[in-house]
Amino acid sequence: MTARSVYPQHSSVDGGRLAVGGCDAAELAREVGTPAYVVAEDDLRDRARAFVAALREHHGPRGSVVYASKAFPCTAALRIFAEEDLSVDCASGGELHLALRAGFDPARVVLHGNAKSEWELRAAVEAGVGTIVLDGGDPERLERLVPAGRRQRVLVRVTPGVHADTHEHILTGHADSKFGYPPQTAAEIARGDWQRLDVAGLHFHLGSQLFDASPFRAAMGTFAGLGRFGTYDVGGGMAVGYTRHDRPPVPHEWVGDLVAIAHELLGTDCELLIEPGRALVANAGVTLYTVEDVKAIGGSEHHGLSFVAVDGGMSDNLRPMLYGAVYEAEIADRVGDGDPYTVVGKHCESSDVLVRAASLRDPRPGDVLVTPVTGAYGHAMASNYNGVPRPPVVFAKDGRSRVVVRRETFEDLTARDA
Ligand code: LLP
Predict the structure, then answer these.
(1) What's the Cα-to-Cα distance from 41 to each of 44, 274, 324, rounded to whole Å?
(2) Residue 193 C-alpha to ligand 1 middle, in angstroms?
(3) pLDDT band for position 174 (50/70/90)?
(4) What residue ranges line ligand 1, CB within 6 angstroms?
(5) Is residue 348 among the annotated active site residues?
(6) Segment 181-222, tens digit of pLDDT
(7) Atom 16, ligand 1: which residue's CA is nearest?
(8) For the chain, how big is the Rg over CA atoms in Å?
């Protein structure tokens, strides 16, 4: 039986046992330990190919799929996306380091950031980064840093003043956003008489986990009002399904909708960049935990549900606490509907709730519990809170697994002591 669509592509459930990338999840947990991020390698490739094919089909060759590496800044994943001919969005010097280490051609790097340090700009120029997105004080600083005789290709980030429908913490294109310049300021910068900057066009990023492309119409309308440019970068933001009840867009339709709006408002002959992060990686990953305790208490504030406590929590998945993000969970070798439980982590605070009302079949200490759709912004935002070593990343493919990021050790916890 094929596992529900929130699991990585080609996952299966046989006799209630979940397999990801052909690997039995419960067995894999015992092999590599828990918590562990498990990523289906083929799923990453398939989604990359789906975005590339969609952009090519709808817009032709003058388009780039730019992987927003913040979603899963893992060298092995970056390597796969470099092989699949994607470009890469780096939001810091550290992400730039990872992308270059993974083998990205510097020409395919788009450097973002609203508070770039001078050393980050310098590192980008020295590495030969293809595109730097201007925001804040960048234009003058960058003009000074680019060596004589060279011109650095740049985009100007616009704050389009569009309030998309998503959690306010992951909204970025609204009028009082810290990102970008007001439209008229952006236009002035773009028309500026720069000696060493080559302004290719404009950029916005509206926000994340967007189910509907309609806010892009207003934002591209803002672009259209600022004059004609050769290149438009419309950011990322495509929603993914975190639960079986979500109805997220699919890349083919999403890209088709964006391109249709772009062609209508900006013309058909521009270069178009899209920057999916979450949509490339979220559903490719699951997290495996061990159930440490089942606590049959709970007052009215927990709807009377018993707790299932696992050996990870907010140190490996901060999204439920930051954004109220809703996840599902299952017992990896007894997949299927059961009774509702509150899945909590091991951290010393009450916000450490991973899943409210997870439907679990007879959870017991020692079981392996799996939360699907943790491929994006889990590993990326992990911490050592409570001295918990960060989990490994394990790639699974065709029944074989390989550790691509090892588990942190206690030695790692003291490795920076000076
Ligand atoms: N491009 C730019 C300039 C961005 O700032 C972002 C995300 C993306 C692309 C990719 O957006 P995506 O396709 O992944 O939605 N930590 C939050 C997400 C913050 C995203 C910030 N920027 C979360 O866990 O939901």
Answers:
(1) 5, 22, 28
(2) 32
(3) confident
(4) 68, 70-71, 89, 112, 170, 172, 205, 208, 235-238, 275-279, 319, 323, 377
(5) yes
(6) 999 999 999 999 999 999 999 999 999 999 999 999 999 999
(7) 377
(8) 22
